[in-house]
TrEMBL record, chain A:
<dbReference type="GO" id="GO:0051603">
    <property type="term" value="P:proteolysis involved in protein catabolic process"/>
</dbReference>
<comment type="function">
    <text>The proteasome is a multicatalytic proteinase complex which is characterized by its ability to cleave peptides with Arg, Phe, Tyr, Leu, and Glu adjacent to the leaving group at neutral or slightly basic pH. The proteasome has an ATP-dependent proteolytic activity. This subunit is involved in antigen processing to generate class I binding peptides.</text>
</comment>
<dbReference type="GO" id="GO:0005839">
    <property type="term" value="C:proteasome core complex"/>
</dbReference>
<dbReference type="InterPro" id="IPR000243">
    <property type="entry name" value="Pept_T1A_subB"/>
</dbReference>
<dbReference type="GO" id="GO:0005737">
    <property type="term" value="C:cytoplasm"/>
</dbReference>
<comment type="similarity">
    <text>Belongs to the peptidase T1B family.</text>
</comment>
<dbReference type="InterPro" id="IPR016050">
    <property type="entry name" value="Proteasome_bsu_CS"/>
</dbReference>
<dbReference type="InterPro" id="IPR023333">
    <property type="entry name" value="Proteasome_suB-type"/>
</dbReference>
<keyword id="KW-0647">Proteasome</keyword>
UniProtKB/TrEMBL annotation, chain B:
<protein>
    <recommendedName>
        <fullName>Proteasome subunit beta</fullName>
    </recommendedName>
</protein>
<dbReference type="GO" id="GO:0005634">
    <property type="term" value="C:nucleus"/>
</dbReference>
<dbReference type="InterPro" id="IPR001353">
    <property type="entry name" value="Proteasome_sua/b"/>
</dbReference>
<comment type="similarity">
    <text>Belongs to the peptidase T1B family.</text>
</comment>
<dbReference type="GO" id="GO:0005737">
    <property type="term" value="C:cytoplasm"/>
</dbReference>
<keyword id="KW-0647">Proteasome</keyword>
<dbReference type="Pfam" id="PF00227">
    <property type="entry name" value="Proteasome"/>
</dbReference>
<dbReference type="GO" id="GO:0051603">
    <property type="term" value="P:proteolysis involved in protein catabolic process"/>
</dbReference>
<keyword id="KW-0963">Cytoplasm</keyword>
C-alpha cells in the first residue's frame, strides 16, 4: 500500500465502475475500494490534502450539483459510539496522556475495553474522542501519511505539521457527521485537532463528555514543577473522578507518558478497585 | 421499523386513541433499511473459536424464514457472523468473498483472520455516509493457532475480544457472557480456562435463554466450531414461537 505509492505504481483496474449506482460523480464509486486506499479522482492532481479513501454517497435524492460531503444523508437506524474522557497535559518531565476505556452506543456499553490512546510513532501519541469508527480510521490514515512523509523526505514530520496535515485532511468532511476530536501528544507539545476545523496548541487539554470533571481536578493541582509520579497520580485521579460522575465514561484508565526518549505505557488499571480504596480511605461505610 | 408513524396527537390524555380524530398529515419517508432480527455470538478459546447464530429471519411481526443462518464461512479458519438488515448482510458477504478471492490470486495465500478484520473495517467505513446496517462478528484462529474474535460496529470500528454477542438479543447475552466467561461481577472465584465442550454447552444455554426473551431470536441455532482440523457445524432446535 505505502510501497505502491512511493513507487508511483499504477494498478490497472480490472473493472470499471459498476453501473449499479448511477451517480454522475464517477470519482465516488463502490468498487474502487477494492484497491485499499485510492486517491480520489485519478484525473485530478494529487494534493497533500486529498483524502486517500473513497466514500460511497447515497444517491437517493438526485441533486445536480451535490458534492460528496454535503448531500442529504440517510437516517441511520442505530446509534454510534460516543462519550469519553481523555486528557493530556505538559509538565517539566514531558507529557502525560490519559483516557478512560468505555465505548458507549446510545445507552449501551458497546465495549468496556477500548484503546483510546494510540501511538502514531515513537514520540507521538494521540488520544481520541468522538465517534469510535471515525477516530480509529482517521488515526490509521494519519499514521499512514506520517510514514509516507518519513519515507519521502527522510525526516519525521513535526508535531505541528502533523496537526496541520490532519486538519486539512478532515476539512472536506466539515459539516457531515464525522465526529473526530484528537489530541496529538508529542514530547514537548500538545495540539488539539477536531473535525469542526479547530487546531489549537496548549498546555492542558481534556476532551469528551467527562472533560468538565477532569478539568476541575487538573486545574486545582497542575503545575509545571510536578515530578513524574505526582503527574501520573494527578492524571489518574482526574480520569477517575470524571468516570465516577460521567455516565458515558468508565471501566479502566490508560496512561501514557511521552518524553524525549519516546512514549511509555502504564499498565491499564481497573477503576473499580480504585473506587473501593477511595471509599475506605474516607472511612465511609460501604453498603454490601 | 417501516412506515408506521403514530404521532402524539392521536392519543388523548387517558392514553387511549382519540376517536374519529384527524391528526394531521404525517410524513412517511422511504427508509432504505429494514430490521431482520437475529443474534450472533462468538467465543474464542485457547485453540478454538465458536461462532453461533440463530436462524430466524423476521420483519416486523412476520417471520420470513426459519432456516436462514447468519454464520458465513469465509476461509478454513474464519467464520463471519452478521445480523441486522439481511440485504446488507448478503451484499457485504459477497463483497468479502470477492475480496478474499482477489487477495488469494494476487498474493498466493489465504487471508488471515486479522487481515480479514482489518479489511472489513475499511469496507464498512467506506460506507460511512450510508452505512451497512450490519452487526458483524468474526471468529477464527490467528496465525499462532489461538482463537480470535473480532467485533465490529456498523461503521467499521473494531476490536479483538475473547467473546462478543451482536444483534437483537446482544444486550441480554453480553452481560451473561461477561459473567460466565469473563468472571465479572463475581468475587473470589477461580478463573478456569474455557474448554471447547464447556464453551459449546454454554453457547447452547445462552441461546435458549435469548429465545425465551427476545422475539426476534429462535427457531434453530447454528454453531460453527473452528479448530485447526477445520470447521464443524451443529444445528440445535430452539423455540419456534
Amino acid at each position: 500500500m505505502a510501497l505502491e505509492d512511493i513507487c508511483n505504481f499504477k494498478d490497472k483496474p480490472t473493472h470499471k465502475t459498476f453501473p449499479f449506482y448511477a451517480s454522475e460523480d464517477t470519482s465516488v464509486s463502490v468498487f474502487t475500494e477494492a484497491f485499499n486506499f485510492k486517491w480520489r479522482g485519478e484525473m485530478t492532481s494529487k494534493k497533500a490534502s486529498d483524502v486517500p479513501l473513497e466514500f460511497h454517497v447515497p444517491s437517493l435524492f438526485k441533486r445536480p450539483s451535490s458534492r460528496a460531503s454535503h448531500s442529504v444523508s440517510v437516517r441511520r437506524p442505530f446509534p454510534l459510539s460516543h462519550g469519553t474522557t481523555t486528557l493530556g497535559f505538559i509538565f517539566q518531565g514531558g507529557v502525560i496522556a490519559a483516557a478512560d476505556t468505555r465505548a458507549s452506543a446510545g445507552g449501551l456499553v458497546a465495549c468496556p475495553a477500548v484503546h483510546k490512546i494510540t501511538p502514531i510513532h515513537s514520540h507521538l501519541v494521540v488520544t481520541s474522542s468522538g465517534s469510535g469508527a471515525d477516530c480509529m480510521l482517521w488515526e490509521r490514515i494519519l499514521t499512514r501519511e506520517i510514514r509516507l512523509y518519513q519515507l519521502r523526505h527522510k525526516r519525521r514530520l513535526s508535531i505541528s505539521g502533523t496537526a496541520k496535515l490532519l486538519s486539512l485532511m478532515l476539512h472536506p468532511f466539515k459539516g457531515t457527521d464525522v465526529c473526530v476530536a484528537l489530541t496529538l501528544c508529542g514530547w514537548d507539545k500538545l495540539i488539539y485537532v477536531c473535525s469542526d476545523g479547530a487546531r489549537l496548541q496548549g498546555d492542558i487539554f481534556s476532551v469528551g463528555s467527562g472533560s468538565p470533571y477532569a478539568y476541575g481536578v487538573l486545574d486545582r493541582s497542575l503545575s509545571w514543577s510536578l515530578n513524574k509520579e505526582e503527574a501520573i497520580l494527578l492524571a489518574r485521579e482526574a480520569v477517575f473522578r470524571a468516570t465516577h460522575r460521567d455516565a458515558y465514561s468508565g471501566n479502566n484508565v490508560d496512561l501514557f507518558h511521552v518524553t524525549a526518549e519516546g512514549w511509555r505505557q502504564r499498565q491499564r488499571e481497573d477503576l473499580k478497585e480504585e473506587y473501593y480504596r477511595d471509599m475506605e480511605k474516607r472511612g465511609k461505610k460501604m453498603d454490601n | 421499523l417501516g412506515l408506521k408513524m403514530l404521532s402524539a396527537q392521536n392519543f388523548g390524555e387517558s392514553g387511549k386513541m382519540k376517536e374519529y380524530h384527524y391528526a394531521g398529515p404525517t410524513e412517511h419517508r422511504f427508509s432504505p433499511y429494514a430490521f431482520n432480527g437475529g443474534t450472533v455470538l462468538a467465543v474464542a478459546g485457547e485453540d478454538f473459536a465458536i461462532v453461533a447464530s440463530d436462524t430466524r429471519l423476521s420483519e416486523g411481526y412476520s417471520i420470513h424464514s426459519r432456516d436462514s443462518p447468519k454464520c458465513y464461512k469465509l476461509t478454513d479458519t474464519t467464520v463471519l457472523g452478521c445480523s441486522g438488515f439481511h440485504g446488507d448482510c448478503l451484499t457485504l458477504t459477497k463483497i468479502i468473498d470477492a475480496r478474499l478471492k482477489m487477495y488469494k490470486h494476487s498474493n498466493n495465500k489465504t487471508m488471515t483472520s486479522g487481515a480479514i478484520a482489518a479489511m472489513l473495517s475499511t469496507i464498512l467505513y467506506s460506507r460511512r455516509f450510508f452505512p451497512y446496517y450490519v452487526y458483524n462478528i468474526i471468529g477464527g484462529l490467528d496465525e499462532q493457532g489461538k482463537g480470535a474474535v473480532y467485533s465490529f460496529d456498523p461503521v467499521g470500528s473494531y476490536q479483538r475480544d475473547t467473546y462478543k454477542a451482536g444483534g437483537s438479543a446482544s444486550a441480554m447475552l453480553q452481560p451473561l457472557l461477561d459473567n460466565q466467561i469473563g468472571f465479572k461481577n463475581m468475587e473470589g472465584v477461580e478463573h478456569v480456562p474455557l474448554t471447547k465442550d464447556k464453551a459449546v454447552q454454554l453457547v447452547k444455554d445462552v441461546f435458549v435463554s435469548a429465545a425465551e426473551r427476545d422475539v426476534y431470536t429462535g427457531d434453530a441455532l447454528r454453531i460453527c466450531i473452528v479448530t485447526k482440523e477445520g470447521i464443524e457445524e451443529q444445528n440445535i432446535p430452539l423455540r419456534k414461537d
